[in-house]
Amino acid sequence: MRWLRFRQGENEYTAYLDGEFARAVTGDIYSGRWHDTGRTFHLAEVEFLTPCRPGKIICVGLNYRDHAAEFKMEVPAQPVLFLKPPSSLLPHGGAIVYPDGVRRLDYEAELAVVIGKKARHVSGEQAREVVFGYTCANDITARDLQKIDQQWTRAKSFDTFCPLGPWIATGLDDSDLPVSLLLNGEIRQSSRTAQLAFDVPFLVSFISSVMTLEPGDVILTGTPSGVGPLQKGDTVTVSIGGIGELSNTVI
Ligand code: MG
Predict the structure, then answer these.
(1) How many whole angstroms from 139 Cα to the centroid of ligand 1?
(2) Where in the chain is the domain with CATH 2.30.30.370?
(3) How far is the CA of 129 from the centre of ligand 1 (A)?
(4) Positive or negative torsion for Cα 129, 133, 136, 138
(5) Å from CA of 42 to ligand 1 middle
(6) How far, in Å, are 44, 68, 171, 190, 195 from residue 113 at the CA level?
(7) pTM for the full model?
(8) From ligand 1's centre to the CA of 36, what distance in Å?
(9) Ligand 1 centre from 108 Cα, in Å?
(10) CA of 130 to the centre of ligand 1 (A)
(11) How far away, in angstroms, is 204 Cα from ligand 1 center?
(12) pLDDT reported for residue 65
């Protein structure tokens, strides 16, 4: 299934996709205790919200071998984790705000994992049981600030720096999904999740050994090679096979 959240008028809805329509539900999609309301909305008439509301967004740096190579770095022996704040979230169709004073703003196409169950110390074998589904993310990065600060909080955390969506796809095999990024319609990144240095089960297990994962939390699994700069006026689209396309403009 494909789960989304959207606004229409004053109201916010959780829904699943049915062709060109969203069918609104009530209840808790993570536990499976939800009910169809019978209300349907054409996708063309809704304003997308981020498909989940994570308490935390855990990100992995340098997790594709080709991306580590383009920065002349080795893939680390263990995953390098950092956080983006929920205030950086931006839905499909929203505008990425190029901050004043930033000189280099980069896109990073990433597979995002959405957690479905509270999880602590899960094994790699148990990891997929706590995954609800998958969506597209763009780990927007102020590359100049990342170099100046030598740690990543400011560079990764501006409002609008975490486009996420358009929906959560469930029931996917995450082991070899095509991940690509189009800048103004031209392909700039193209890889597959089979190229991940640390795969999804390993990451879920590793992160759950550090912190408790909660339903709706999001893991950004890292970006492949081909990262590059954005300019005001650009349209940037993350496309992942089996999920869909996350498209945003830069203002
Ligand atoms: Mg990244």
Answers:
(1) 5
(2) 2-48
(3) 25
(4) negative
(5) 33
(6) 26, 21, 12, 19, 16
(7) 0.97
(8) 36
(9) 6
(10) 22
(11) 16
(12) 81
Amino acid (1-letter code) at residue 225: S
- Centre of ligand 1 to C-alpha 231, Å, is 18
Rounded to an integer, what distance in angstroms lies between the CA atom of residue 40 and that of residue 55? 28
What's the gap in Å between 220 CA and the centre of ligand 1?
7
pLDDT tens per residue across span 33-74: 999 999 999 999 999 999 999 999 999 998 998 777 777 888
Range(s) for CATH 3.90.850.10 in the chain?
50-250
- C-alpha 227 to ligand 1 mean position (Å): 10
**Residue 175: pLDDT above 80?**
yes
CATH 2.30.30.370 for the 2-48 domain, yes or no: yes
Tokens coding 129: 């049981």
Q: What is the pLDDT of residue 68?
A: 77
What type of residue is 41? F
Alpha carbons 97 and 57: distance in angstroms, whole number: 19
> pLDDT digits over 75-95, tens only?
889 999 999 999 999 999 999
What topology does CATH give the domain 50-250?
Answer: Fumarylacetoacetate hydrolase; domain 2 (3.90.850)
